[in-house]
Amino acid sequence: MKKEYLIYKLSEAMKDCTRIDNELFPKFDVKRGLRNEDGTGVLVGLTKIGNVVGYERIPGGGLKPIPGKLFYRGYDLEDLAHAILKEKRFGFEEVAYLLLSGSLPDKEELASFRELINDNMPLEQKTKMNIIELEGNNIMNILARSVLEMYRFDPNPDDTSRDNLMRQSIDLISKFPTIIAYAFNMLRHATFGRSLHIRHPQENLSIAENFLYMLKRDYTELDARTLDLLLVLQAEHGGGNNSTFTVRVTSSTGTDTYSAIAAGIGSLKGPLHGGANIQVADMFHHLQENIQDWTNVDEIDTYFTRMLNKEVYNKTGLIYGIGHAVYTISDPRAVLLKELARDLAHEKGREREFADALASGKLVIKDCIADAFLQNTLLIPEEYSVIATLNLNGDYISDQLAAMVGGIGIAPGANINYDSGHAIFEATHGTAPNIAGKNVVNPCSLILSAVMMLEYIGWQEPADLIVEALEASFAEGKATNDLARFMHKGQPLSTSEFTREIINRIKN
User: For residues 81 and 337, what is the distance between their CA atoms, to the nearest angstrom?
Assistant: First the structure.
């Protein structure tokens, strides 16, 4: 019997002898992977570092999908990222400090931490030579082997005391960019015959800047800021993802840090985890070859449906990208990356049809049938800015959109003739004879319509004062009953009481 046939025969036999019927999992109360049957995550341990949120529990049972949230040490990742983006600064180091210490650094602490990282970025000479000599075409394997190699040069590799673990952690954070940059340059040299460049990390550069400098030397500020944001977004993702769980299981034996981290890297490499990055690049190359019109939503949807049905690409039924099993409506990391992605695409001249449309002053329109659109407003609302519909569709679409932000009682409306300049501002909702005169109607729709009118005629200051008063009132849970019942410790007010509340806040 030929070896190839024997291997095939054994492989086929294994399909049947290792298959476990799905009904056995609930029978013996065994978890399948890292998800429960209701879609929630499996509790594999407790952590105060990261928290992944994709749903809310409904009183009485059941789950409510919500836009994804990721928290670092109690801080909303969105808030951290927006502060970094607004100030156009490099934030990974302070986020790393936060994750390690539990608190954000002050100016002096951050400066010292950055200096410590820069001091630790250079590699031992033997480590550099080992990277050059390592053969292989996978950066993750080279990284894992290099981490194990670092064990040799650590004066106290097996010391698992808290101080030593912190020292080792900072050293690994510092050296990972250097190892990866050197490994990539060596791979490019050995595989593609490119010149071999080994650049030493520079003082006073952020981790993102240093990584790009060592990788290709020439980079733009936007390149570095985008990489920095990506590092911030990928810095932590809870204790239940595969690689983190692997490290927890491995380190629970009391083994050394380098062995535990190398095990985690091995888990991260898989195409259903961190290795999905490589798979994404391959998938996009495939999409470029098979999708003719990138502005045709129907063509794109049809092709992705075929991928899900295991008809095209690698026929696994998977669409690769950033994601997490617990997220339901959206992944906050993907949402945040989009904020820089367009700028980066513009800088690199990679906007294709979209760039051409913008350059020519055209308006880019995406057609969508009404029922699909209603679904999309729940799943991907961030992809829409201006919505144009016929009157009938607009009637029920506006009702749904209003419900998503608090109800139709809060939605303002305007009818504007941009030729004559004439305009009428009115509540979106119609009359309500059943509650007329009962002092319970929510006046926000009319109030916010008035705000739009003030903005239209250029009276921005009074418009802002009204909005600020409304926001402050809502923050304290003070609103008419239709809104207050959904607020934490909501205080239902009558129409007149709520109106006086807003007036008093404006006066003060």
Answer: 10
Are residue 439 and residue 328 in the same domain, yes or no?
no
**Rounded distance between C-alpha atoms, residue 487 and residue 284, angstroms:** 43
Whether the model pTM is above 0.90? no
Of 123, 158, 177, 162, nearest to 258 by C-alpha is: 158
d(CA 453, CA 460): 10
Residue 309 and residue 260 share a domain:
no
Q: Does residue 109 sit in the same domain as residue 220?
A: yes
What do you get for the CA distance between the two ends of the chain, in Å?
91
Residue 258 tokens read as: 């380098």
CA-wise closest residue to 480 among 446, 430, 431: 446
Cα–Cα dist 485/64, whole Å: 17
Return the structure tokens found at 20: 């476990």
Query: What are 279's two structure tokens?
Result: 């798979």
pLDDT digits (tens, 9 = 90+) for 325-364: 778 888 888 888 887 877 887 777 666 544 544 444 545 5
Does residue 324 share a domain with residue 458? no
User: Which pLDDT does position 132 carry in this prediction?
Assistant: 78
Whether 79 is in a domain gets the answer: no
Question: Cα separation of 473 and 448, whole Å?
Answer: 14
Judgement on whether residues 108 and 237 belong to the same structural domain of the protein = yes
Alpha carbon distance 185, 195 (integer Å) = 8
Taking the C-alpha atoms of residue 473 and residue 489, their distance in angstroms, rounded to an integer, is 12
Tens of pLDDT, residue by residue over 45-89, are 778 888 888 888 888 777 888 888 999 999 999 999 999 998 989
In which element (H, E) is residue 142 found? helix 139-153
Total domains, the chain: 3
Residue 57's φ and ψ, nearest 5 degrees, are: -80, 135
**In this structure, how many other beta carbons lie within 10 angstroms of the beta carbon of residue 77?**
23
Phi, psi of 296 (to 5 degrees): -90, 100
Q: How many CB atoms lie within 10 A of CB 16?
A: 7
Query: For residue 24, is it within any domain?
Result: no
